[in-house]
Amino acid sequence: MTKVYADNAATTYPKPEEVGLSLLNYITKIGTNVSRGTYEQSYSTARVVFETRELLCEFFNFREPLNVVFTSNITESLNIIIKGFLQNRDHVIVSSMEHNAVVRPLHSMSKLGVNFTIVPCDEEGKLAPKAVEKAITKNTRLILINHVSNVCGTKQDIFEISKICKRHNIHFVIDSAQSAGLLPIDFQFLNLSALPFTGHKGLMGPQGIGGILLNESFAKSIKPFKEGGTGSFSEQEIQPEIMPDKFESGTLNLPGIFGLNAGIKYIKKVGLSTIYEHEHFLGKLFLNNILNIGGIQLHGIKEMEGRTSVFSISFDKLDSAEAAFILDRDYGIMTRSGIHCSPLAHKTLGTFPQGTVRFSFGYFNTKEDIDYISKALHDMVKNQK
Ligand SMILES: Cc1ncc(COP(=O)(O)O)c(C=O)c1O
To answer: Which atom of ligand 1 is nearest to the CA of 210?
Structure first.
């Protein structure tokens, strides 16, 4: 049976061949730790780790490679920021399109006296920057906004929000899980305090690698929740303050870093705009093909302007889990159904608690994939009648 992968918002697949080869090279030919060995092979691993920090700096227009911290994914990065920075009585502003990677740590911090405001987005998931400004209180210390929705692909106007943060002298952080590797993100231009990212989606790396780019003064005001061996200052019993060691206790995910290194080099080679244009083309085709199918509803923005190629649909006569099951069983089409770890977003779109079927396209999807999916949807709706 034909197989079509349409779950790139969960993780991109396939990865570029270079990424696999880089992992294989590390595992079979290099394999050494960093900052723990006094031999050349360990130094050569360290050079690749440092080069990856530099690649991330160049990619996101950030200046300080030593303030690039590696984590296991953006969930860990967001937890470091939310739990390490916020204190009793601090106020945070988020949108109603946030992922649980933001919402759950915030609820947990609210038990420690942190307050947060969820600014409602409209029924297409769009946030009005003015509403963000209105929500600012004298205790607001952080504005954290999902750049692109993992449920329906809606993009937020992060530049306008960055200007508000600058005007009010409030830290600005974006959740880049669905935008890094697809849209240009300029750390300096957006005046970010931190940029958490995940390596296995648009950045085309393997699972289990992510990180944060941290502005110097913001990094100083975060307490790490993980402490331990860093391979540096080993004579000290307390956690070093120097970056990135402050946040990088324990052996790094070195295969992950090698894979991410190759993923970013691949994006550089192909060009971010080429990736964007291809995904945009696929999204436009999908919209044209499905908007006129009776019996299914598209949630979110109905044109490509203001969105990416992540689509949520529901069927008039089929539950979303059942529809995703049929798509896989009868057509070999891989999607994700349900709430997508974003109950807030589904409440905003009016699709809670039933959820939706999500189709998310990536650089390796083709026009034929979209035609095949569109035909399958037509077929399914016909069979429901
Ligand atoms: C918007 C958003 N934030 C955070 C995450 C969490 O990503 P990870 O599982 O890589 O930590 C995801 C994952 O789908 C996401 O889409």
So the answer is: 10
Ligand 1 centroid–CA 342 distance in Å is: 10
For residue 37, the model assigns a pLDDT of 81
The strand pairing partners of 214, in sequence order, are 194
CATH number at residue 26: 3.40.640.10
Low-confidence ranges of the chain (pLDDT < 50): none
Based on the domain organization, do 245 and 292 belong to the same domain?
no
**Are 209 and 88 in a shared domain?**
yes
With vertex at residue 243, the alpha carbon angle to CA 241 and CA 246, rounded to the nearest 5 degrees, is 50
Q: Which of 112, 130, 109 lies closest to 121, judged by CA?
A: 130
Q: Say if 377 falls within a structural domain.
A: no
Q: What is the pLDDT of residue 306?
A: 98
- CB-based contact 62:270 (threshold 8 Å): no
pLDDT tens-place string over residues 14-59: 999 999 999 999 999 999 999 888 898 899 999 999 999 999 999 9
The finding on whether 177 has its CB within 6 A of some atom of ligand 1 is: yes
- Closest by CA to 181, choosing from 266, 121, 118, 288, is 266
